[in-house]
Amino acid sequence: AIIEIQNAMNSYSEGRALFDTGATANFVRKKFVIKLGYEIKSEKCNIEFQSLGEQKIPIYGKLALKLRSKYSRGGSGFYEEHLLFNIIDEIHGSYPHRRLNMRNFQNIPSHLFLADHTFNEPSQIDVILGNGIAFPCLLNGGFRLNCGLTVKESDFGNLMGETFNDYYMHG
Known about the structure:
Layout: E1 2-6, E2 12-19, E3 26-29, H1 30-35, E4 48-50, E5 56-72, E6 78-88, E7 94-95, E8 123-124, E9 127-129, H2 131-134, E10 138-144, E11 150-154, E12 157-161, H3 164-170
Parallel strand pairs: 2-9, 3-6
Antiparallel strand pairs: 1-2, 1-5, 3-9, 4-5, 5-6, 7-8, 10-11, 11-12
């Protein structure tokens, strides 16, 4: 999703977010924190997170950030939230991992507001939103496209997702 994050000047900057329902915390890239105009107080904390692949990820500190959606659902206003993020060096890789052919998405209803209109283009992820925000902002609506992707309505707009098997079996 493309979201807006309040920067150090109290205006908003766009960032690309990955909703990770398996993550128990929120993460932000160190370079993105600097781009937002915030200072990082320490070089590295004595805190590490362990990823699914048992890789240890050093934390450079914590930062409270205000984020909001670019999507106003039914005139009820934009979704806003204050969250605590762990600052990490990098979120490796681009998502999606490969460019997705838009011909495969011709059956996306034109009235849907996509949370990321460039979802098919590989791009750097700036923040990972963990299950503390990812689950609560998911709404009831959703369906599966002919190409195998799932579309799920959220407070940030409609999210696109695929399973591990979908990506690696058909990629």
